[in-house]
């Protein structure tokens, strides 16, 4: 499982950073998830090894343009590439309306099914796809904003060979079926796959947030998460200087939360343009390190972050 950052700026792009976009990739599927799609995201994808043909799910956190203005062009390019497979979009209702209005006014017809789900109608329910699971998390910003907990589901099984031997079950084609997750009949009795097979590794999950001034809203979702991607638009000092309600977090606020909840990997992104350029993020990074003791990453455009596996071992129980 990997995170790839396509845009790490807040508000508007600069010569150093594009606006928001992040990809979540999976080990056992070519399909991938895009979280937010600011203007120019498709150009960032062209610089990566990501394939638009395999982009299967797009999640948009909120209606601000730096998180969604890239959608019409991205979908138009997917249409021109000859894509036929359906594309799923989970987004605020107004973003979906924006898309359909753009299609109508610019005479764009998609050759694939665009399956849209308005976040407001989901009531923060989980969505299951054939390659991952998505959980929607309500955040706090100047407009309704959301985060997405993305969990992998395609994990190959291993067989409990010691248990099979202990139960006198000889090798044969039924081993392959058990490993694939199917119950099988053997010598007049049914062998349950969940008894004789187990996942090769612990399912990994990441939370990728939209804009959010209240990290504590993640408390009910953070347990067991392998990585948290969260905005740190300002340092604490600079946020106070701004002097008006921004709806954003500072490095101190999110670092304290991540430390209190024992997040193993914190990735900060969505940096104000005042920090763009060599050495300008040093104060923000120092602030985050002061309040967070885990692994800290400050995202940059094009950065790929590996989410390591926790391998599971055989149990006879």
TrEMBL record:
Its EC number is 3.1.26.11. SUPFAM superfamilies: Metallo-hydrolase/oxidoreductase. It holds the Pfam family Anti-Pycsar_Apyc1. Its cofactor is Zn(2+). Zn(2+) 1 binds at residues 62, 64, 141, 211. The active site is at residue 66. Zn(2+) 2 binds at residues 66-67, 211, 270. It catalyses: Endonucleolytic cleavage of RNA, removing extra 3' nucleotides from tRNA precursor, generating 3' termini of tRNAs. A 3'-hydroxy group is left at the tRNA terminus and a 5'-phosphoryl group is left at the trailer molecule. Keywords: Endonuclease, Hydrolase, Metal-binding, Nuclease, tRNA processing, Zinc. Binds 2 Zn(2+) ions. Homodimer. Belongs to the RNase Z family. PANTHER family: ZINC PHOSPHODIESTERASE ELAC PROTEIN 1. Zinc phosphodiesterase, which displays some tRNA 3'-processing endonuclease activity. Probably involved in tRNA maturation, by removing a 3'-trailer from precursor tRNA. This is Ribonuclease Z. It comes from Pseudoalteromonas luteoviolacea. The gene is rnz.
């Amino acid at each position: 499982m990997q995170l790839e950052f396509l845009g790490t700026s807040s508000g508007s792009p600069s010569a150093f950073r594009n606006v928001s976009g992040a990809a979540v990739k999976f080990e056992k599927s070519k399909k991938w998830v895009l979280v937010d799609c600011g203007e120019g995201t498709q150009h960032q994808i062209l610089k990566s090894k990501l394939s638009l043909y395999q982009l299967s799910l797009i999640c948009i956190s909120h209606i601000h343009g730096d998180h969604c203005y890239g959608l019409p062009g991205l979908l138009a390019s997917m249409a021109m590439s000859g894509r036929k497979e359906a594309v799923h979009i989970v987004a605020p209702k107004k973003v979906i309306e924006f898309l359909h209005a753009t299609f109508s006014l610019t005479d764009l017809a998609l050759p694939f099914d665009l399956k849209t789900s308005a976040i407001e109608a989901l009531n923060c329910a989980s969505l299951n796809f054939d390659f991952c699971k998505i959980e929607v998390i309500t955040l706090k910003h100047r407009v309704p904003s959301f985060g997405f907990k993305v969990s992998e589901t395609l994990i190959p099984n291993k067989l409990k060979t010691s248990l099979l031997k202990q139960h006198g079950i000889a090798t044969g084609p039924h081993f392959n079926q058990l490993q694939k997750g199917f119950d099988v009949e053997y010598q007049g009795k049914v062998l349950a796959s969940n008894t004789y097979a187990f996942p090769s590794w612990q399912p990994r999950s990441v939370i990728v947030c939209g804009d959010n001034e209240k990290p504590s809203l993640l408390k009910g979702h953070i347990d067991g998460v392998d990585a948290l991607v969260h905005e740190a638009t300002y340092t604490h000092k600079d946020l106070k200087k701004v002097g008006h309600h921004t709806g954003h977090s500072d490095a101190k606020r999110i670092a304290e939360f991540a430390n209190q909840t024992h997040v193993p990997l914190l990735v900060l992104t969505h940096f104000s343009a005042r920090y763009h350029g060599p050495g300008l993020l040093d104060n923000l990074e120092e602030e985050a390190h002061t309040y967070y003791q885990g692994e800290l990453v400050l995202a940059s455009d094009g950065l790929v972050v590996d989410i390591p596996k926790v391998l599971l071992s055989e149990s006879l129980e």
